[in-house]
Specification:
By secondary structure, this protein is an all-alpha fold. Helix content is 78%, strand content 0%. The longest helix is centred in the last third of the chain and has 39 residues. The radius of gyration is 17 Å and the shape is elongated. The relative contact order is 0.11.
Length: 90
């Protein structure tokens, strides 16, 4: 389970790279997400029950996948809007 935890943590860090805009406090979302992930993993590091660890990993992976899917869909929609606006002006 330790390798899977590390893999998930690294995947979260990689995925956070695309969140480059600031929140209302002026902090980059990338940094906010990384800090939150670190806190979550540190809090879960004391858990020894394999079933709970597996559940935490499953929920974490699902959350990461959903976030990436939503970001990718929003990015694709934004790119489509840009393409449409370019063709509308011609």
């Amino acid at each position: 389970m330790n390798m899977e935890s590390l893999r998930l943590y690294r995947d979260i860090l990689r995925a956070s790279r695309v969140f480059t805009w600031p929140n209302e406090k002026g902090e980059l979302w990338r940094d906010v997400l990384r800090s939150a992930a670190r806190k979550e993993f540190e809090a879960a590091s004391v858990e020894r029950d394999p079933l709970i660890v597996a559940q935490l990993l499953l929920v974490g992976r699902d959350c990461l996948n959903q976030t990436q899917d939503k970001f990718n869909a929003a990015h694709a929609k934004m790119m489509q809007n840009i393409d449409n606006s370019r063709t509308d002006q011609r």
